[in-house]
Amino acid sequence: MTDPALPRAPEPTVPAPGTAVPGRHDLPSGPERLPAPERAAPQVTTYPVSFTGSAGEYFRLWIVNAALSVVTLGIYLPWARVRNRQYFYGHTWVDGHNFEYRANPLKLLRSYVVVGALFGAYTLSQQSERWWWLSALIALAFALLYPWLVAQSMRFQAVNTTHRGLRFHFDGSVKGAYVAYGAANVAASLSGGWRCPGRGSCSAGIR
Q: For residue 32, what pLDDT is reported?
């Protein structure tokens, strides 16, 4: 029994035959998507590069490095190289900050000792026909490892270079080094040099 005072709920209506019934595909799927706003072009700020070194200062540095390298029979060469780079980097300014070179001369000395020992063995082996195979082996190893050595050297220089406290990074791959310094140099030698007119064109493929 229902209370006559309460309003009665409307009875459901049945659509007439042939009338379209709104289904799920007729309902709005959601708010209309607004077109994405156009991204503003990134602003590129350029800063001039200035060098504050002088020929007189560098000459004094160079003469001291040369004298110490001669007195120490070449042992001072890594320290001389680091001092030279520190002078040039320290006098190169960008955005009010100079560059810094923080390489450890002892690491360079170890590399110099290895290269010097191999060069000495190569030179001595060429003096005797009995040891010709040793000189050929050293030359072949150097030719095969040269692209890898170049990549390692560039990575070492980048890691030890800083600007505003931030270190540089070299992300070139060993494969790219072999393409740039291996295949490109072979193509240049076979073509008489026209495939590699400059050093930059052959080394641009290190990626």
A: 58
